């Protein structure tokens, strides 16, 4: 009788769903049972959420004659919310959120550069002392990168990312309350802690995108991600200058990005998955047991394409790090020499050049990354070495226009801005392509380590020392004519002339990468 009663209940439920009594009179076939199991497996926690899983009266309660069973059960609390959350975790949404986080990373990093002149005047520090802010930040960033690379290849990546964002947001907000002139060392220390937080993000997030996409779609998504570097840098200048102007105090420039950063950290926890390493490349079944860290490092050092592209990336970092800190200052001094502006001695100082430079950086970043992705895609139809060759040509072209900045700045600020625009566009062209080269020549289980170690070397040889080195050379050249406005302008220009030569060296490293790119890519595909 119980069995007959159960069949009657299922028949009634089927009629309520529009299936008809006759359709359920016979036992379900094997294919029907398989479809039912698939439907159950798609719902969170194996619980039903649709009308097909419950029969309710108009009063919203289960009918008294129907009881939950194998085919009829109520939804668990929160199941519908979890189902909606899973639908939002698409690869494109994840790439968008990670790109947003990268924008905020770089925006926070260059907010200080947007108010650097005010910081110098407030704490009464020299050019070398001001350059120390960026140097300490980058040193802590690069020292933490290998640690986060190791963790990123072995543990949940989105948890590490979120913790890093929450760390730098909290420290940046706290540093905005340092106002005593004697506590400059504490302000410098805070920038070091911010570097640790941002290091976790830059080391790990590209590898998640690499495991969500492949081939041309991966190039597009990495281009979107690395577009955040110039875009965030430019917005950092704009945010710093605008917040200072609005509040009349440079400290407020450091109180906006932390709130946005914490929001991005929450979005990553909710909507960004942690895909299986190598899943997009269909290498999951072929990936062997994870190798020890020292074994990974030995393999990377033997990978010639990876080594040369990392050295080229260091050259880019050297130039961008020095430019990001000193170009707005250089243009201010140029206008003082031209007698179109007055030298600032008491903050708040005029931040017009920081705003213009920030806007130029945003636009050139967008153009550079888009042109780089489109050009590489077109050149791949002609040669399989397109990625490193496009990077090499853009670097060599950038060096020419960056040299012209220091030639025309004394006579024409507009001419200097034109040279900055073209030079930065060519320089930013290779960022996403460099990341794509790494994804091609390194196997998935080593990518977080590879990204972290590349970040370590590029910062160690690049922007870790370039802001401080440029400031040091400028201070040394000023010693003979410390009170001369003209010599303050010229000394900083002479120091910045080091950058074009480093950029040319980076172009040579990309040409060397092109020689070994195909062999290293083939080795990675066979492993």
From TrEMBL:
<protein>
    <recommendedName>
        <fullName>Major facilitator superfamily (MFS) profile domain-containing protein</fullName>
    </recommendedName>
</protein>
<dbReference type="InterPro" id="IPR011701">
    <property type="entry name" value="MFS"/>
</dbReference>
<comment type="similarity">
    <text>Belongs to the major facilitator superfamily. Spinster (TC 2.A.1.49) family.</text>
</comment>
<dbReference type="InterPro" id="IPR020846">
    <property type="entry name" value="MFS_dom"/>
</dbReference>
<keyword id="KW-0812">Transmembrane</keyword>
<feature type="domain" description="Major facilitator superfamily (MFS) profile">
    <location>
        <begin position="94"/>
        <end position="524"/>
    </location>
</feature>
<feature type="transmembrane region" description="Helical">
    <location>
        <begin position="494"/>
        <end position="518"/>
    </location>
</feature>
<keyword id="KW-0472">Membrane</keyword>
<feature type="transmembrane region" description="Helical">
    <location>
        <begin position="159"/>
        <end position="178"/>
    </location>
</feature>
<keyword id="KW-0813">Transport</keyword>
<feature type="transmembrane region" description="Helical">
    <location>
        <begin position="184"/>
        <end position="201"/>
    </location>
</feature>
<feature type="transmembrane region" description="Helical">
    <location>
        <begin position="388"/>
        <end position="409"/>
    </location>
</feature>
<feature type="transmembrane region" description="Helical">
    <location>
        <begin position="415"/>
        <end position="443"/>
    </location>
</feature>
<feature type="transmembrane region" description="Helical">
    <location>
        <begin position="252"/>
        <end position="272"/>
    </location>
</feature>
<feature type="transmembrane region" description="Helical">
    <location>
        <begin position="306"/>
        <end position="327"/>
    </location>
</feature>
<dbReference type="InterPro" id="IPR044770">
    <property type="entry name" value="MFS_spinster-like"/>
</dbReference>
<dbReference type="Pfam" id="PF07690">
    <property type="entry name" value="MFS_1"/>
</dbReference>
<feature type="region of interest" description="Disordered">
    <location>
        <begin position="13"/>
        <end position="54"/>
    </location>
</feature>
<feature type="transmembrane region" description="Helical">
    <location>
        <begin position="131"/>
        <end position="152"/>
    </location>
</feature>
<dbReference type="GO" id="GO:0046624">
    <property type="term" value="F:sphingolipid transporter activity"/>
</dbReference>
<keyword id="KW-0445">Lipid transport</keyword>
<dbReference type="GO" id="GO:0012505">
    <property type="term" value="C:endomembrane system"/>
</dbReference>
<dbReference type="GO" id="GO:0003376">
    <property type="term" value="P:sphingosine-1-phosphate receptor signaling pathway"/>
</dbReference>
<feature type="transmembrane region" description="Helical">
    <location>
        <begin position="355"/>
        <end position="376"/>
    </location>
</feature>
<feature type="transmembrane region" description="Helical">
    <location>
        <begin position="450"/>
        <end position="474"/>
    </location>
</feature>
<feature type="transmembrane region" description="Helical">
    <location>
        <begin position="222"/>
        <end position="240"/>
    </location>
</feature>
<dbReference type="InterPro" id="IPR036259">
    <property type="entry name" value="MFS_trans_sf"/>
</dbReference>
<dbReference type="GO" id="GO:0016020">
    <property type="term" value="C:membrane"/>
</dbReference>
<keyword id="KW-1133">Transmembrane helix</keyword>
<dbReference type="GO" id="GO:0022857">
    <property type="term" value="F:transmembrane transporter activity"/>
</dbReference>
């Amino acid at each position: 009788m119980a069995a007959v009663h159960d069949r009657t209940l299922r028949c009634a439920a089927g009629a309520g769903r529009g299936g008809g009594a006759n359709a359920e009179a016979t036992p379900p076939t094997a294919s029907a049972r398989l479809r039912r199991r698939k439907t159950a497996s798609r719902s969170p926690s194996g619980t039903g959420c649709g009308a097909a899983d419950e029969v309710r009266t108009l009063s919203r309660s289960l009918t008294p004659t129907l009881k939950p069973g194998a085919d009829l059960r109520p939804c668990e609390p929160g199941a519908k919310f979890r189902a909606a959350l899973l639908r939002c975790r698409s690869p494109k949404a994840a790439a968008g959120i990670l790109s947003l986080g990268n924008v905020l990373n770089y925006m926070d990093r260059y907010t200080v550069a947007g108010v650097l002149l005010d910081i110098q005047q407030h704490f009464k520090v020299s050019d070398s002392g001001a350059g120390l802010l960026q140097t300490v930040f980058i040193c802590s960033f690069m020292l933490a990168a290998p640690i986060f690379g190791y963790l990123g290849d072995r543990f949940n990546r989105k948890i590490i990312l979120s913790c890093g964002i929450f760390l730098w947001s909290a420290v940046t907000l706290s540093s905005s309350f340092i106002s005593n002139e004697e506590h400059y060392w504490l302000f410098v220390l805070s920038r070091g802690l911010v570097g640790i937080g941002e290091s976790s993000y830059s080391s790990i997030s590209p590898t998640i995108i690499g495991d969500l996409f492949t081939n041309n779609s991966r190039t597009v998504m990495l281009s979107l991600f690395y577009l955040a570097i110039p875009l965030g840098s430019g917005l950092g200048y704009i945010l710093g200058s605008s917040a200072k102007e609005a509040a009349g105090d440079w400290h407020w420039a450091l109180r906006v990005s932390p709130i946005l950063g914490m929001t991005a950290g929450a979005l990553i926890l909710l909507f960004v998955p942690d895909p299986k390493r190598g899943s997009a490349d269909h290498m999951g079944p072929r990936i062997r047991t994870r190798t020890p860290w020292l074994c990974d490092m030995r393999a990377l050092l033997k990978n010639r394409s990876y080594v040369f592209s990392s050295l080229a990336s260091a050259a880019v970092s050297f130039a961008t790090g020095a430019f990001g800190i000193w170009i707005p200052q250089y243009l201010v001094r140029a206008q003082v020499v031209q007698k179109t502006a007055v030298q600032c001695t008491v903050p708040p100082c005029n931040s017009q050049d920081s705003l213009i430079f920030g806007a130029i950086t945003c636009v050139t970043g967008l153009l550079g990354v888009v042109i780089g992705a489109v050009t590489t895609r077109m050149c791949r139809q002609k040669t399989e070495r397109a990625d490193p060759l496009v990077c090499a040509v853009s670097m060599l072209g950038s060096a020419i226009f960056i040299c012209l900045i220091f030639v025309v700045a004394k006579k024409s600020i507009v001419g200097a801005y034109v040279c900055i625009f073209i030079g930065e566009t060519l320089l930013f062209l290779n960022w996403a392509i460099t990341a794509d080269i790494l994804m091609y020549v390194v196997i998935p289980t080593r990518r977080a380590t590879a990204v972290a170690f590349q970040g370590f070397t590029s910062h160690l040889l690049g922007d870790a020392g370039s802001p401080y080195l440029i400031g040091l050379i400028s201070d040394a050249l000023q010693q003979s004519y410390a009170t001369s406005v003209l010599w303050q302008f010229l000394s900083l220009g002479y120091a910045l002339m080091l950058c074009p030569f480093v950029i040319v060296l980076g172009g040579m490293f990309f040409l060397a990468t092109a020689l070994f790119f195909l062999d290293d890519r083939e080795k990675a595909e066979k492993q």
